[in-house]
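Before relying on records like the one below, remember that each one covers exactly one chain. Contacts with other chains, cofactors or solvent are not represented anywhere in the record.
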Amino acid sequence: MFFKSKENPKIYAVQDGDSVSLDMVPDQVFAEKMLGDGVAIIPRSNKVKSPVNGRIVQVFDTRHAYSIETDDGLEVLVHIGINTVELKGEGFEPKVKDGDRIKVGDVLCEADLDLMIKKGYEIYTPVIITNMDAVKTIKTFSGNVIGGETPVIEYKKA
């Protein structure tokens, strides 16, 4: 008798664009996986969507980063741009608040990518699992992606 194995949980692209490995990100903290493992999106769209089903733990005061707890207990950080904390919220329009329940594809934020580029910021959007101790295995995917539709990370819980 054959049993179909349960599919591994997935984390989806947050924006339309290209998914790349974290070591491509021009920031040591992300490239060396100091905060955790994941991918980065080089975006072609201003809408930043939820990569998971879960709850917003924190919308950073500077509106450039979003911490999410998944329904199965992972902590996922969505960080829009590199060093964009320096913008102090300029160019970011959050669509969620702390405590909100979200589903894959819900819009977290609208980010003004043109403003970031004009001001000299890299627009990579790292998507990181920050509690890697809860993960047994992780597989990341690179290539062209659609926000809220294309899986970019597959994992098994520890």
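The two ends are 28 Å apart (CA to CA).
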